[in-house]
Design a protein that fits this description.
With 379 residues, this protein is α+β, with helices and mostly antiparallel strands. The protein folds into 2 domains: 175 residues, no CATH class; 160 residues, no CATH class. Helix content is 54%, strand content 16%. The protein contains 15 helices and 12 strands. Helix 2 packs across helix 12. It is elongated and about 90 Å long.
Length: 379
């Protein structure tokens, strides 16, 4: 019998235990990969060359505080500002609260001059600009609800005391977020009777102007009743993550507990497997196998068990992300869910470490045991 065949025979000695252990490792690494991917999607918003030129000016105190309409013309005159649009989060409910998606009031004429990386139908954009109750919707949200161009929808106001009856006049594709709905800010003004703005969306003329615009805009309103905070679009997106508290610490703690628990499970499995073959190990020693060779056989079995479980868990997560629309599955919480090679590699590395560490104590104990004591063991 060959060495690989011998290792395989030992691993298959108790098929039920082997199956349960491999599945347990696979499940733990599946959860690890899912959590790490979720953390990546939340904490590392996608950035494009065009989005790096976009800035958000909001109230310094809170996202819930609003800014005066008169700020727009003053921001537009700042050197380096190419375009500026109002941008107000509406937060309405479509049918019921589970149908969450982003809805923004904006300046229709400036929208796609600022959102330059998306693809649209010029005729649809023209129709959107002409009609005050029109809206443009990302393709993912269109597919999620089965909407069609020309369809009327109603958003029930929660933050603002108004219900918006909108007509879908166009769809946009591409960009870093295909889930947003944009409508005319003028319609929101008329529906609420208010003339305030949630924030201002700025397009810089070039990358060199970004830092200067941030400084100039905030300095301009530093002594006003509504002071501002200007930041990049990416930094603005990360602000929403802070609402959930210390997500990195929470997910990191959960991952640590998962890995530690599965290391204990794997160690327990290997301890039982080695204890069952104490007599067999003693026979191998009597036949001339040294401690290093026996340790290698045990290590190879534990390593293979953990690695197979890790492959099933990590590759299974990648396969799931490739074939399931996580935007629909998460009810709009995750726009994208990309399991990167880095995350898969980290999962497989943990599986490898799990296989090595979990067998160290029982393997060392079996190597140190005397041949005589081993031969006295009953099967």
């Amino acid at each position: 019998m060959t060495i690989p065949g011998f290792i395989l025979r030992n691993a298959l000695r108790n098929k039920r235990r082997l199956t349960l252990t491999v599945l347990s490792v696979a499940l733990s690494l599946f959860l690890f990969t899912v959590l790490q991917t979720a953390l990546r999607e939340l904490s590392q918003p996608q950035v494009t060359e065009q989005s790096a030129l976009r800035l958000i000016t909001r109230h310094k105190v809170s996202l819930a505080s609003v800014l005066p309409l008169k700020y727009q013309s003053r921001i537009a005159r700042v050197p380096g500002v190419k375009r500026v649009s109002r941008l107000t989060w509406f937060g309405g409910i479509y049918i019921d609260e589970s149908n969450f998606f982003a809805q923004f009031g904006c300046d229709a004429n400036a929208l796609f001059d600022i959102l330059t990386e998306v693809t649209t139908d010029p005729e649809q954009v023209a129709a959107f600009k002409k009609e005050k109750t029109a809206c443009m919707v990302g393709i993912k949200t269109m597919n999620r609800f089965g909407w069609k161009v020309g369809q009327k929808i109603t958003l029930r106001g929660t933050i603002y005391p108004a219900n918006l009856e909108l007509t879908i006049r166009g769809v946009y594709h591409g960009g870093i977020d295909e889930t947003n709905l944009f409508f005319h800010h003028e319609y929101l003004d008329e529906a609420t009777g208010w003339r305030v703005v949630g924030c201002y969306w700025i397009q810089a003329a070039n990358a060199d102007a970004v830092a200067d615009i941030i400084q100039r805009v905030d300095a301009m309103f530093s002594s006003s009743a509504a002071e501002t905070k200007t930041e990049t679009e990416r930094a603005f997106q990360l602000t929403f993550l802070s609402w959930f508290g210390n997500v990195k610490l929470l997910i990191g703690s959960i991952c640590t507990v998962i890995v530690f628990t599965m290391m204990l499970v794997t160690a327990s499995t290997m301890s039982m497997a080695i204890r069952e073959r104490t007599r067999e190990i003693a026979v191998l020693k009597a036949l001339g196998y040294n401690g290093g060779q026996i340790f290698g056989l045990i290590l190879a079995e534990s390593f293979a068990l953990a690695l197979v479980g890790g492959l099933i868990g990590c590759v299974g997560t990648w396969f799931l992300a490739q074939n399931v629309d996580m935007y629909v599955l998460s009810h709009g919480f995750f726009v994208k869910f990309e399991v990167t090679p880095h995350i898969v590699s980290a999962g497989l590395l943990i599986a490898t470490a799990m296989g090595v560490v979990s067998c160290l104590a029982p393997a060392v104990a079996s190597v140190r045991a005397s041949v005589l004591d081993g031969l006295r063991e009953l099967d």
